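DEPOSITED CHAIN:
***
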Amino acid sequence: MKLSAVLIIIFLCIIKVASACSVGFQQFQLSDNVSRPLDVTIWYPTSQNSASISVSENIAFVGTKVIKNASLPPKKHPLVLLSHGYRGSWRNLNWLANELAIKGFVVAAPNHPGTTTFDHSALQASQWWQRPHDLVRVLDHLLEDTAWRTVIDTESVSAIGHSMGGWSVMQLVGAKFDRNTFQKQCRLYPNPRTCGLGNELGLTSPQPGEPKSFNFYDPRIKKAIILDLGLARSFSIESMSKVNTPVLILGAGIDIGDLPQTMESGYLAEHLPLFNRHYKVYEQAMHFSFMQLCKPNAIALIEEETPGDGIVCKDGAGIKRQELHTQIFKDILGFITYSQQINHM
């Protein structure tokens, strides 16, 4: 092959890689419900090659490179909804959203009022049913918005949730919160982390405005990925046994002290139909291993500011979070891609 031809091929490959690796980034607020405005963050593939900025970067955590308000892609792409954990935010799974966007996914993440980093409103937190509804509101908006609806492949919508976010996502695929079950399980297994949040989250007694039906199933969600969830034992066994949406359950093998995956992820896996659930435990991962990468001195910095919170940067001995992320992303991407192939057959 002539040198000129080789150079042309290399140049084309460089262009292709650059295009594939460009991630657009937008943030806006949904005000369709004036009593619960939603801050939404979206990552998406873009062919724009403008200067990038770093988002979610601070002295403790590693950010990602994105192009703010970049042009939207010209064709339809699969959508992933992200739900953060208790008092977390969109930043926690920013790394995952960025990697998915690089692979051609549109990713949207709301901050859940009352249980997000900068919003601890007691009223909002107690409205437990709003969390799954937040995700529905985001999906509705994207499919109704003139610009976004041309970008979303409605046959390829997935939802991913970490911790309490996993609990929220499971309700979209048919698992139903049952107050009697929650109270019974807390008497049998009085877990301070899950049961201890019962009052704050409005789980122990009926709340003002609580819907009569606890059925939040949304058939538009084609796949669910659950990252080391909590509160699994609040779901009725009957509802879990009827979940027909494919679910990937990923658990952390190292207990942080009061959230053993066998009692949460394992419990969920036990009661979901075997034919459409996949279950894997990362033996060297801890609950917060699914969050963004930490900088070398992050634990000391966090402990200095908030003693005890340095745990968010701890993983199992002999492994780096980046290694865990590589495997986690591979498993998530494989599951979504495989499900897409099955759904389109």
